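Most newcomers find our protein records easier to grasp once they have seen one. Read left to right, the backbone structure tokens trace the chain's path through space. Once this layout is familiar, the rest of the handout is easier to follow. The record below serves as our worked example for the rest of this section:


***
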Amino acid sequence: MLNCYLIFIKIPVNICMSDKKSGFNVNDRSEITIPLRNLIALLVFVGVAITGYFNLTGRITFLEHNMAIQDVHVKQNNEFRIKWPRGELGALPDDAEQNMRLTHIEKQLEEIKKATEE
């Protein structure tokens, strides 16, 4: 059986970043000053990161789809490779014509053999 232990950590409820020694005070009215070029660079970076993420996920999805389609083609090719020589998938029209000619030649050969024996 898995034993679980709970660990309690005491955290002060009143967290305040003010320190009378440093003069640093953070509250709901605090302001941050940032240069405009840094703000623009930050926005451009976020835009490029988002675009890169969606392009990457789109490419992965595309490749996974192509791999699934290729797997289907490989399975069909494997089935064809095995069944075609056995004649389970039919024959070409040229094969049927060739078989008819061979049958006709065999009949003619039998007739010639009978005629030479008599």
